[in-house]
Write a structure and sequence with these properties.
five-stranded parallel β-sheet, 31% helix, six-stranded parallel β-sheet
Length: 282
């Protein structure tokens, strides 16, 4: 990161796969944020988490990240909550009040307290909310009956976490975004909050205040979410190889990438970063 610090003033940084792996920080990540703050840089943490920004900040503090090291945390879940509450688009305005929520372990607090009624069957619902799924304990295919029933009724879906995969006990499992993608494949109408959709970046740029967009860079470990999202938002990007793509790149330990392996990976990627770093270190 020291090689980029003179080129950018604002940094939109992913959580999982860049700063930490869900339980503890990656080596050097906290030190890197400290050095960026010393250099007068502004940092917004951007997460596709369906939890609130405050809940994510608490999680990071528990892992040893002082909240003073970033300007704010923007989450997909909070973005979804705000849009439903404000009925901010024609899509959100038509949703109705009765929500059938897909959750992980029943956690739906992000949509509580905004006037919704949570129903227990698709047949009672006005719309679907994809907040989480219980993979690997409940495989994605087990959700098909509910998705088919919802599609037959023409129910719209809000996706409050578009991640396709997530870390689980050191490996990767399908995540909420995979459920939303499956519903779209069935012909269902889905509104995604979070990366790689551009709207979430507007909130990040607003939080960065005086930083000109040309001096802002997005940093993440997912080509499909972080790097594609930055490209769609017209921002520069830096790819962290030691995250979600680490195994296929042979970069699990933060090693420098083999040029031939990178060229093959980059050739088939949906977006190409401006910079590639082995890890989020100074």
């Amino acid at each position: 990161m020291s090689a980029l610090v003179s080129r950018f003033d604002g940094y939109i940084v992913d959580q999982w796969g860049v700063l930490h792996e869900g339980l503890q920080p990656y080596p050097g990540a906290i030190d890197c944020l400290e050095r960026m703050q010393d250099a007068g840089k502004h940092v917004v943490v951007l997460s596709n988490s369906a939890q609130s920004g405050a809940a994510n900040v608490r999680l990071m503090e528990q892992m040893g990240f002082p909240a003073r090291l970033f300007d704010c945390l923007v989450s997909a879940g909070e973005d979804a909550r705000a849009a439903i509450l404000a009925r901010s688009t024609p899509f959100h305005a038509k949703l109705g009040k009765r929500c059938y929520a897909f959750t992980r372990e029943g956690e739906r607090s992000i949509l509580e307290g905004i006037g919704l009624s949570f129903v227990t069957s698709v047949g009672e619902a006005d719309f679907l909310a994809a907040i989480g799924i219980d993979t690997p304990y409940r495989p994605l295919v087990d959700y098909d009956a509910e998705l088919h029933a919802a599609r037959s009724r023409g129910l719209p879906m809000i996706c409050a976490n578009p991640d396709i995969t997530r870390f689980h006990h050191g490996g990767l499992v399908e995540a909420t975004g995979a459920l939303a993608r499956r519903y779209a494949e069935l012909g269902g109408e889905v509104f995604h909050h979070g990366k790689p959709w551009p709207a979430i970046y507007a909130a990040c740029l607003a939080a960065l205040g005086s930083c000109a967009p040309g001096r802002v860079i997005a940093i993440g470990d997912s080509i499909e979410h972080d790097i594609l999202g930055a490209a769609r938002a017209g921002l520069a990007s830096a790819f962290i190889a030691g995250g979600i793509h680490a195994q296929e790149l042979g970069a699990a330990g933060g090693e420098r990438l083999d040029p031939a392996t990178w060229r093959e990976f980059e050739h088939r990627a949906v977006a190409r970063p401006d910079y590639c770093l082995p890890a989020f270190i100074w």
